[in-house]
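not sure who needs this but someone in the group chat was asking about Aminotransferase class III-fold pyridoxal phosphate-dependent enzyme from Mucilaginibacter achroorhodeus so here u go. i didnt clean anything up, its just raw.
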Amino acid sequence: MKLFDVYPINPINIIKGQGSLVYDDKGTAYLDLYGGHAVISIGHTNPHYVKRLEDQLHQIGFYSNSIEIPLQKQLAEKLGRVSGKEDYQLFLCNSGAEANENALKLASFYNGKKKIIAFKKAFHGRTSLAVAATDNPKIVAPVNETDNVVFLPWNDEAALEQAFKEHEVSSVIIEGIQGVGGIQVTAVNFLQKIRSLCDEHNAVFIADSVQCGYGRTGKFFSHDFAGVNADIYSMAKGMGNGFPVGGIIISPKIAPSYGMLGTTFGGNHLACAAGLAVLEVIEQDNLMQNAAEIGDYLITELKKFDQVKEVRGRGLMIGIDLPEELSNVKKDLLFKHHIFTGEAKPNVIRLLPALNLTKTYADRFLEAFDATLNNA
Ligand code: PMP
């Protein structure tokens, strides 16, 4: 059988990882500033993570959600404490799309309305409601769902107000920083406006934190910079450091409208062990602070390059906007300097490294970036 061919693939076979480094089958070390697309939050093969998963695997890997799984409660408690959202309720699933799908569904259960407000260039996943709320020409929705989605320009308060006047809005779904859309930071005022309009119209504010959440920006949720609470936060990626773990946390206002959410794998013993290990390391090693500090340092240094059009982001979620003639930079970083980065169209380099990236590795990147720009 052949693989179904969906991804553009680099001809590199990564077989090992440690911290911020990964190694190919020839023994070449690469600096990983992509983190498998923001998934590696505490570094590859983190010893505490490996031990916790290994111990759990020896005990029991999986049973089912028909029994009590105390690890789920432990994860909820820990997540409540680390995120500061103690009074929310956690529903565990397996991916970002599934988290958003459930969030959007729950919003309709809550207020009985259908219309979803989403934003230009947003990415929320590939399941039916999530993809309908995604604005990406390469990822199109199945025929029937898009009717219920209104796409608005980014950070445009007037358009938002107008949409609330024109539609019976069930929910507003928004990333705190657009990731796939090119690292666009949502304005604090705009998030506050969403909060007040949702309150006024009994709509549900869904904070997609799949890429920008989990401490990456220096705060647990990047929406926290606005000082307002969303009704539902969706999470995945960094939540399991590579083990598939996703979830939503639901505010006390919405939680009682619980209905028909469920999953076979979500919240299994191994997933919970992975989730707990990640939070333990984030807390013990002060990784949110590290993300803020190293992120600030990188952003400041990157802004000094004349060739760079713009540097956007917060903490360790950084977009480097380059002019078109420098379209080879990402490839050069990988093949000449052995540094993995991400990209967003057109010509934005995305940095999404593990939250424990050191200054030494940040400097190694800056030197390589300099060399690449000056050869270009
Ligand atoms: N939301 C955002 C903001 C994302 O970046 C992604 C993945 N790129 C998703 C949702 C979907 O997550 P998953 O691929 O785990 O379904």
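also The chain has a mean pLDDT of 96. if thats useful
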